[in-house]
Amino acid sequence: MKSTNNDLTDKLWHFAKCYIESYQHDHGHLPVAELDEDWPSPCQQGLFTAQESAGQEPAQQILWQPVPADGNLCFNNIESALELELHPDIKSYFTAFHSDPLDAVCSEGQLSLLFSWNEDDFERLQENIIGHVLMKQRLKQRISIFFAVTDEEDLILSLDNETGAIWVEHVGREPHKKLADSMAEFVAGLTPHTQA
């Protein structure tokens, strides 16, 4: 399995920086998420004070931005449980930083890049990856790992675990359209999408 880890991490951080700059340009502040006191994140950058809607009590919101993961994130437990080595690029992708999803545009349209919001979310992500891989094995399909969703409900973007290529696939089916030979190539071609 060919890895482009350093290049990929650099490209992910470059995209995240461009996303934040674009969001600030379009909205005048960092991205906003609803405050959930039971689901804190190192991404949180303080409370966001919005103007009140007509007669409605606004939900408390926070400003956020991607922040480096602390180095404790790893996939050893997944690889041990599945007796499968995950492609180095998918491990680099999901351990580069914590973030809310980052919206982007590629040649195929709009998508949301998935990341973990906090360490508990990373554990939940791993459980979802295990479920996805087990489904692929049960259906006797090649192993892929999802990393992005689209505005079509069952259409995801995934990395082929053997080759590292990026594909479009319907959940439960074989990937059907190749988008890039590597994650680094794919991320380099993305444009942030920060307008409502």
Write structural notes for this entry.
By secondary structure, the chain is an alpha+beta fold. The chain has one domain (5-28, 68-192): SMI1/KNR4-like, CATH 3.40.1580.20. The chain is 33% helix and 26% strand. It is globular, with a radius of gyration of 17 Å. Interacts with the SecY protein in vivo. May bind preferentially to an uncomplexed state of SecY, thus functioning either as a chelating agent for excess SecY in the cell or as a regulatory factor that negatively controls the translocase function. Keywords: Cell inner membrane, Cell membrane, Membrane. This is Protein Syd.
In short:
With 196 residues, the chain is of the alpha+beta class. The chain is 33% helix and 26% strand.
Top-tier CATH class: Alpha Beta
Helix share of residues?
Answer: 25-40%
Mean pLDDT: 91
Q: Uncertain spans, ≥5 residues at pLDDT below 50?
A: none
Structural class assignment: alpha+beta
Shape: globular
Query: What is the chain-wise order of helices and strands?
Result: HEEEEHHEEEHEEEEHE
Count the domains. 1
CATH superfamily (homologous) name? Syd protein
Strand order in the largest sheet = 11-10-9-8-7-6-12
Which second-level CATH architecture applies?
3-Layer(aba) Sandwich
Total count of strands: 12
Please summarize the sheet with the most strands.
Answer: 7 strands, antiparallel
CATH topology: SMI1/KNR4-like
Number of helices: 5
Evaluate the radius of gyration. 17 Å
Fraction in beta strands: 25-35%
Ends: how far apart? Answer: 39 Å
Organism: Thalassomonas actiniarum
Protein name: Protein Syd
GO cellular component, one term: cytoplasmic side of plasma membrane
InterPro entries: Syd (IPR009948), Syd_sf (IPR038228)
